[in-house]
Design brief:
The protein has helices spanning 49-64, 102-112, 128-136, 150-154, 174-177, and strands at residues 8-11, 14-17, 21-22, 45-48, 68-72, 90-95, 119-124, 141-142. By secondary structure, it is an alpha/beta fold. It folds into two domains: 8-161, Aldolase class I (TIM Barrel), CATH 3.20.20.70; 166-195, no CATH class. It comes from Rugamonas brunnea.
Length: 195
């Protein structure tokens, strides 16, 4: 008898087995059912934001037990979860298409403005090329597309050795992180003298 296929994700820069199930209430192009009537299966489930908001009272005990996470669609606002973020061990952000970059802003806002400290996972159309930029805005787990090699995608987290801009993962820009020898002798030639 063949063994069941395990879902793998990248978490904290390692490929690990995933014990969470992402609840999708409708396929792309279909109308989603009423969020209040969606049945949430047993086990560790990442529910759509709309389902959480509609069934908060029912799902609260499971969230406290670490069995409920929430995922945010690219056209939703994370601020709707402001009061509930502390309940979730996991928040996921959906990337419906490789070219849809709204998830980066959602992740950045979750980390910086809303102060979310738990696991922040990228789900959907997640490819190797995106991983380095995703970690910069606060993602620490990635459910890559199943048709791609996850071990190859893991290498995407180390594509670059240095970053120029400040972000969630590096609070200072490059020019503030590196000490320069500045003195009167090169004051006329050093454009940044005195900064």
């Amino acid at each position: 008898m063949p063994e069941a296929v395990k879902n793998l994700i990248i978490k904290h820069r390692a490929v690990v087995e995933d014990d969470w199930f992402v609840l999708r209430t409708a396929a792309e192009g279909e109308t989603a059912p009423d969020a209040a009537t969606v049945a949430v299966p047993a086990g560790k489930v990442i529910v759509p934001q709309a389902v959480w908001l509609a069934q908060r009272e029912t799902l609260a005990a499971r969230a406290a037990a670490g069995e409920i996470g929430v995922w945010i669609a690219s056209d939703e606002r994370p601020e709707a979860l402001r009061e509930d973020l502390g309940r979730f061990a996991l928040v996921a952000v959906d990337f419906p298409k490789f070219t849809d970059g709204r998830g980066y802003s959602i992740a950045y806002n979750l980390r910086t403005r809303l102060g979310y400290q738990g696991e922040l996972r990228a789900i959907g159309d997640v490819l190797r090329d995106q991983l380095f930029s995703m970690q910069r805005v606060g993602f620490d787990a990635y459910a890559t597309r199943p048709d791609r090699n996850i071990h190859d995608a893991l290498k995407g987290l180390t594509d670059f050795s240095e970053t120029y801009q400040a972000s969630v993962d590096q609070k200072l820009p490059l020019f503030r992180r590196h000490a320069r020898e500045v003195g009167a002798a090169n004051a006329g030639t050093d454009v940044g003298f005195g900064i």
